[in-house]
Amino acid sequence: MDLTVNAMWFSIALVFIIAAVSKIAIERIMLDPVYKPRPPVVNSVSLIRLVLTKGLRAMICDQHRKLGSVFSVSFFGLHKVTFLVGPEVSGHFYQGLESEISHGNTLEFLVPIFGKEVGFGVDITTRTEQMRFYNEALKPSRLRSNVDPMLKEVEVSTNLQSEYRHDYIPSIILTPLSGLLLQDYLAKWGQHGVVDLKHEFEQLIMLIASRCLLGTEVRENMFGEVHTLFRELYNGMGLTSVLFPYALTLANRRRDKARVNLSEIFTKIFRSRKRAKQVESDVLQNLIDAKYKNGRSTTEAEVVALIIMLLFGGNHTSSLTSTWTGACLLRHQRSLTAVVEEQKQIIRKYGERIDYNILLEMDTLHNCIKDALRMHPVEPMGIRKVHKNFIVKTKEGTEYEIPRGHTIVSPVLYNHNLPYIYKDPYVYDPDRFSPGREEDRVGGKFSYTAFGGGRHTCVGEAYAYMQIKVIWSYLLRNFELKLVSPFPETDWSKLVPEPKREVMVSYKRVAA
């Protein structure tokens, strides 16, 4: 009897509690004009199979179709990750203040690579000033002087005699290079042959960086060593290292050893220049001479970390973009014909000369690179942590409140393929960016975010386009090229997705 009575009173109490809570919620909705609903939520368990069988892009597509452009994935009720699909809901992601939205600890795995003196190892004020150093070092007025050194590297790389062999081991990885023009470069293209673009561009981009960013000390005396050490850093970007950056794994130990050795190399250069009062015209010198707003000069540890972060962030992504551009061009004859014709027109206008202003006129080549990046972004997803609630509005007019504590994701790999912005999004079509179409402006300034956007725009965008244009303008002028391996699939197991296996291209030097 007592149990029955207790159960009855418990039921009555529960009904009153539910009614009270519901009344409060309804009043808040009715009386608070600012109140907005939270995004629809899906449980992560239900998505695991889809992600494993069809991939992340398919999962986003499925949820976008079912739930709309804003939805949250709940991980066992402990944490929510909210996806923002499309430019209409991406404004705050790219423009929000650091106090409202930031990377949080999502990029902590980069601290052992770059160092605790820069990037995500320092506070936002210091990091912002360090980004200013990069902006100063890579501004257009300074970039102009880098075109000739870049072109020289490409010319030297492709003028040495030797054909590709499948058992060929590049000597550049094993021995340091020396001499004014370093007559032992691995490419050794000759008149005709077959090369792996992915491998060639990795080497060539690093050579360009050595000449333009690091200076003569590295370029002429220790390129092989520096290149090998950076490969060890890249290899330290596996899933285990990202999730457990301080674990005592073999990959992490190799990464840390490479970081120490690179630090020793750049520290010696820093001290040598200071001691001899030597001044060079490279980015390394710009960082050595940089000063914070309070007048403090950069320390040697900061300069070392800044140059490592710059090279790490730019070289690998530029070499992959160069490779994807080549694969896309050589697979699509119409685009290849158009970009070759553009080079012929520029030669008729300026002769064989290439300078910064001439590169800016290569609109067709620029669009070819841009569409390759649209289809194969080096950063497939942007991630931020929410520190203060904010509201997003979909293109249909629905508003959602994104709460503090959520992780938000801008899925670049999916946003770049939205059919209401890009016509035939899975087709390589560089003309989509030409005057009269300009599809990247259809949804506003965040329709195309291969280089980020807003407060998070990549400082190296102009430099990246410049060096890729230098490489491809030279190749298109001097060689007939043909893709001889299948168009590469994407290796999604890497933090920066890259072509699987080799990208083999046959070449024949064009008669002058």
TrEMBL record:
Keyword Heme assigned: yes
InterPro entries linked to this entry: CYP450_sterol_14alpha_dmase (IPR050529), Cyt_P450 (IPR001128), Cyt_P450_CS (IPR017972), Cyt_P450_E_grp-IV (IPR002403), Cyt_P450_sf (IPR036396)
Leader sequence residues: none
Pfam family, one: p450
GO molecular function terms attached to this record: heme binding; iron ion binding; monooxygenase activity; oxidoreductase activity, acting on paired donors, with incorporation or reduction of molecular oxygen
Transmembrane segments: 6-26
Superkingdom of source: Eukaryota
Family as reported in the entry's similarity comment: Belongs to the cytochrome P450 family.
Protein name as it appears in the record: Uncharacterized protein
Organism in which the protein naturally occurs: Eleusine coracana subsp. coracana
